[in-house]
């Protein structure tokens, strides 16, 4: 730790620097947290030039009025001055207490700041202001005498750059701020501007001034959904309206932000107005909480404006009031008053006159016509208006309905005295939520899953539903027009729109620090938290723990689940959990996850949950444990044939291990992990990753001079080359590996290398060599010393060896031997029950049935294998199964089905990087295309497949392509006839060299038919 004054080293326990004596400033990390706020930066332009010639006292006197004006404007609108900069300041809105109106408040503060500085009358004092909304880390810096609230993060730099770009007495805002404040204030888009420190030009807006739109009108203008449900609440409101004939009725609509209080109130009021009711309405504003009688002023203006528009009334309502009450109304309306009697009144008497006048005006309106007095957002009412509204809400006046809206934390203390009916607004039910979503997204069933996810994510809070949908549309995830939207691509996370970040954060700020801490632990545990685990991690006394849970349940943040089977808690909706989690600084998150990890590791009930342990270890940045639990989770997934998940966990384990200290032991573990992971990447079809990990393991083995691990890594890379590279490369690498493996003497890896060589020979069309390689491995694997290499399940390689040897004998026409081997593969699959083994056996059985000329039986076997491979994500087998299934359809004359399946096989093979499968599916897709009448397309596909097979060394596939060309080329003229004869002769030559007897016989039969006497073109 270093002194901020002299930079000398000091101990953590020191209160003062031992060298210079300065007080130690400490950041209190427990109070640090992430916040979504709006930052205001302002300074005096060319302040250096203004004070360069002045004495220090004069310089301070010149700038201080401007600084005082800035501070006053910020504080008027609820901002916190986080730093004074000599000629300016930095301020934050929305912290330390969250406020969902932080952006509009900051904009109003900026407008007032400029107005105040200009109003000083000093032409030399000109200011510029920058505004930006974003995430910051907020913390307290404590010294001996004070605490200062500071913010950190990239967001403040953008605000500073906008300030620097602004012109004299202008306010520049970022797009993030503009989106949050649009409607509350007016903006002018200035285009994209290059700002220092940012790579790309950013959109910049100039703040023009305040808007005269009410908050309700701003929200209504953004709304894209229709009003739904609220049947129960409307019944209660209608009942209250019917009761006004006897006496005044007061109803308080109470609910959290976004729940739909204003929407319900306005929809109901519209019904009343249609029935002949008069409306007096006003809205309390967070911008005017400090302005006395600001809410009452709006009430009185609404009364007088309505009266002025009434054609049946020519007089002014104020004329019927006593003179002193007329002056009271003028005072509230900020009209000039020239009345000594009013001037002589004390504050209490003036207040009494104002409330009497207000009551008289409301009663006068209600006597003429049934009236609804709607006052919204009374949680933001100013104190002076609050006293008068309390009296209005208790008036004994028939034909008056007083309708108030408020958030739970702002319910008036006087509400019980006026005998108000409190109507608590709850979230929509699922059906109503879906109706709302159908209005916005459209009725299409293709969006059904998305709608269900949004309902779960938002807990049917109307504003949240709207803003999530708007965010998805604005980001391009939803395409089309409102009422007819479709997903552009799958959505992983619905996220939290910036427009409701503050709404949720404000709810979280209502709970105590202890309750907040418990909520953070629950957020780290996940959407649902086991109460026993939460208790263990929190380590609170039981009475305190239960008290916190009760408070959080009452606040509908973390609610108890009624279940006899589990003692659990869950978040009211996912966005509460996300905002809670996101509000924690990284250090706090790590600490909480470390505590959860420790609790889980000592709890036997979680012994089978390495995936959960891996998650918390990774978030705690305990990389050694993340490696161990990641590997455990990978093996667990592999055991249940979840290969893609296994591969993902292997990657987590690899990355975690690489973050530990570099040692020989670490590198050995890293190599072994990549060797062990090979089958997960292979099965899930991640061929390029499989090859990359093999090569990385080889590089690391070289680095630590570990010949044994290098041979194993080369074996893994060679096996991947069979799918990803050319046969010639694969054969050369495999032969080199076998030499090294024999020298090393590890029989398990020698068998793996020999099997890989057999595959390489098979793909190269060297079938006799392939059969010999597979025979050697099979004999060894059936012997007593058949230990498999790391990461290989028992009998796995034996099954694959039987499968490939069966293929080889089928291609060579030795069907009896092939059938014996296929039965052996099927028996192994039956014994192990592993999906991968069953898929391999199905592939072997289908290939054999095609060789035996029974395509219907082949299709039945291959269909089962294809479904099983897709179900378990065994992606490596999907293209080859689809290819041979297409061939089975083709040979049954099902040409449309064949073409569809073969096209799918080819695309899947391309996606996986399975070169031989691309070529084989292309050859037979061409044959299906030919049978469906497109001869030219078939010829082009076969010509391309033949050339590629020849260039890359797939001689067996080259021969099949040549036979295919002969089949699709009509011998309609001499040139075509010559081409067909050449193709068949070339195919026969290749098949003879390869030992592919059935293909050779097929080509010979076609050639003999072409050459037979009397053969016609």
Automatic annotation (TrEMBL):
Residues 38-163 form the Guanylate cyclase domain. SMART domains: CYCc. The keyword Nucleotide-binding applies. One of its GO terms (cellular component) is cytoplasm. Keywords: ATP-binding, Nucleotide-binding. One of its GO terms (molecular function) is ATP binding. This is Putative ATPase. It comes from Bradyrhizobium sacchari. Pfam families: AAA_16, Guanylate_cyc. One of its GO terms (biological process) is cyclic nucleotide biosynthetic process. SUPFAM superfamilies: Nucleotide cyclase, P-loop containing nucleoside triphosphate hydrolases, TPR-like. The keyword Nucleotide-binding applies.
């Amino acid at each position: 730790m270093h002194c901020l004054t002299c930079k000398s080293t000091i101990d953590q326990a020191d209160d003062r620097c031992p060298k210079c004596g300065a007080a130690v400033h400490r950041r209190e990390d427990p109070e640090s947290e992430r916040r979504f706020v709006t930052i205001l930066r302002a300074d005096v332009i060319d302040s250096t030039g203004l004070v360069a010639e002045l004495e220090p006292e004069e310089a301070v006197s010149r700038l201080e009025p401007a600084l005082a004006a800035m501070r006053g404007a910020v504080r008027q609108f609820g901002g916190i001055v986080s730093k004074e900069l000599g000629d300016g300041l930095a301020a934050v809105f929305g912290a330390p207490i969250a406020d969902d109106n932080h952006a509009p408040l900051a904009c109003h503060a900026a407008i007032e700041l400029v107005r105040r500085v200009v109003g000083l009358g000093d032409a030399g004092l000109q200011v510029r202001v920058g505004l930006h909304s974003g995430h910051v880390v907020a913390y307290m810096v404590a010294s001996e005498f004070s605490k200062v609230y500071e913010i950190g993060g990239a967001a403040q730099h953008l605000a500073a750059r906008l300030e620097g770009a602004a012109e004299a007495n202008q306010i520049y805002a970022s797009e993030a701020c503009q989106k949050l404040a649009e409607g509350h204030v007016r903006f002018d888009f200035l285009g994209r501007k290059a700002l220092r420190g940012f790579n790309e030009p950013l959109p910049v807006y100039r703040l023009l001034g305040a808007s005269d739109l009410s908050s309700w009108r701003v929200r209504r203008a953004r709304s894209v959904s229709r009003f739904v449900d609220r049947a129960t609440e409307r019944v209660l409101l209608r009942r209250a309206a019917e009761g006004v004939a006897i006496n005044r009725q007061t109803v308080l609509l109470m609910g959290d932000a976004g729940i739909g209080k204003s929407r319900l109130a306005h929809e109901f009021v519209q019904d009343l107005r249609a029935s002949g009711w008069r409306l007096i309405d006003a809205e309390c504003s967070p911008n005017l909480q400090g302005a006395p009688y600001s809410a009452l002023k709006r009430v009185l203006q609404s009364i007088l404006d309505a009266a002025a528009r009434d054609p049946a009334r020519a007089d002014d309502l104020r004329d019927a009031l006593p003179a002193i009450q007329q002056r009271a109304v003028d005072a509230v309306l900020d009209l000039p008053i020239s009345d000594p009697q009013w001037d002589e009144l004390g504050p209490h008497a003036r207040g009494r006159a104002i409330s009497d006048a207000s009551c008289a005006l409301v009663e006068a309106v209600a006597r003429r016509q049934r009236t609804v007095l709607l006052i919204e957002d009374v949680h933001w009412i100013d104190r002076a208006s609050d006293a008068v509204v309390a009296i209005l809400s208790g008036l004994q006046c028939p034909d008056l309905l007083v309708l108030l809206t408020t958030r739970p934390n702002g319910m008036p203390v006087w509400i019980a005295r006026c005998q108000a009916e409190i109507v608590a607004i709850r979230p929509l039910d699922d059906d109503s939520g879906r109706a709302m979503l159908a209005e916005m997204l459209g009725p299409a069933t293709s969006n059904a899953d998305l709608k269900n996810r949004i309902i779960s994510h938002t807990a049917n809070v109307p504003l949240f539903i709207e803003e999530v949908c708007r965010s998805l549309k604005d980001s391009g995830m939803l395409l089309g027009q409102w009422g007819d939207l479709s997903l552009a691509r799958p959505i992983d996370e619905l996220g939290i729109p910036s427009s409701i970040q503050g709404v949720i954060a404000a709810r979280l700020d209502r709970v105590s620090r202890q309750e907040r801490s418990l909520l953070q632990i629950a957020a780290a545990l996940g959407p649902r938290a086991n109460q026993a685990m939460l208790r263990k991690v929190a380590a609170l006394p039981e009475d305190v723990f239960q008290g916190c849970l009760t408070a959080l349940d009452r606040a509908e943040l973390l609610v108890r689940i009624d279940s006899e089977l589990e003692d659990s808690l869950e978040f009211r909706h996912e966005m509460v959990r996300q905002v809670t989690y996101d509000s924690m600084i990284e250090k706090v998150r790590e600490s909480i996850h470390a505590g959860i990890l420790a609790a889980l590791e000592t709890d036997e009930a979680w012994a089978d949950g390495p995936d959960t342990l891996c998650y918390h270890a990774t978030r705690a940045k305990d990389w050694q444990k993340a490696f161990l639990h990641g590997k455990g989770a990978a093996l667990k997934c592999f055991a249940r044939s979840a290969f893609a998940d296994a591969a993902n966990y292997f990657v987590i384990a690899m990355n975690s291990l690489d973050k530990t200290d570099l040692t020989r032991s670490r590198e050995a573990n890293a190599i072994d992990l990549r060797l062990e992971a090979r089958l997960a990447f292979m099965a899930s079809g991640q061929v390029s990753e499989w090859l990359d990990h093999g090569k990385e393991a080889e590089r690391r083995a070289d680095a630590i001079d570990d010949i044994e691990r290098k041979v194993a890594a080369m074996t893994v890379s060679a096996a991947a080359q069979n799918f990803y590279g050319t046969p010639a490369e694969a054969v050369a690498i495999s032969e080199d590996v076998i030499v090294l493996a024999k020298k090393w003497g590890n029989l398990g890896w020698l068998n793996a290398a020999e099997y890989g060589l057999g595959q390489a020979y098979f793909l190269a069309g060297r079938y006799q060599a392939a059969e010999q390689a597979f025979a050697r491995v099979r004999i060894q694997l059936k012997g007593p010393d058949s230990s498999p290499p790391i990461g290989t399940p028992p009998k796995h390689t034996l099954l694959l060896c039987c499968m490939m040897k069966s293929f080889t004998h089928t291609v060579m026409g030795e069907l009896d031997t092939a059938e014996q081997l296929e039965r052996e593969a099927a028996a192994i699959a039956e014994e192990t029950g592993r999906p991968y083994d069953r898929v391999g056996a199905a592939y072997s059985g289908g290939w054999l049935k095609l060789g035996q000329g029974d395509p219907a039986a082949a299709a039945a076997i291959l269909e089962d294998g294809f479904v099983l491979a897709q179900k378990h994500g065994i992606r490596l087998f999907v293209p080859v199964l689809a290819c041979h299934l297409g061939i089975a359809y083709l040979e049954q004359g099902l040409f449309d089905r064949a073409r569809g399946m073969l096209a799918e096989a080819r695309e899947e093979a391309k996606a996986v990087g399975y070169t031989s499968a691309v070529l084989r599916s292309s050859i037979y897709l061409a044959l299906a295309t030919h049978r469906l009448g497109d001869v030219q397309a078939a010829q082009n596909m076969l010509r391309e497949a033949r050339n590629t097979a020849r260039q890359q060394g797939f001689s067996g596939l080259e021969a099949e392509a040549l036979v295919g060309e002969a089949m699709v080329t009509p011998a309609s003229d001499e040139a075509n006839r010559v081409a067909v004869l050449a193709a068949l002769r070339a195919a026969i030559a290749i098949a003879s060299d390869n030992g592919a007897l059935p293909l050779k016989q097929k080509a010979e039969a076609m050639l003999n038919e072409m050459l037979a006497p009397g053969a016609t073109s």
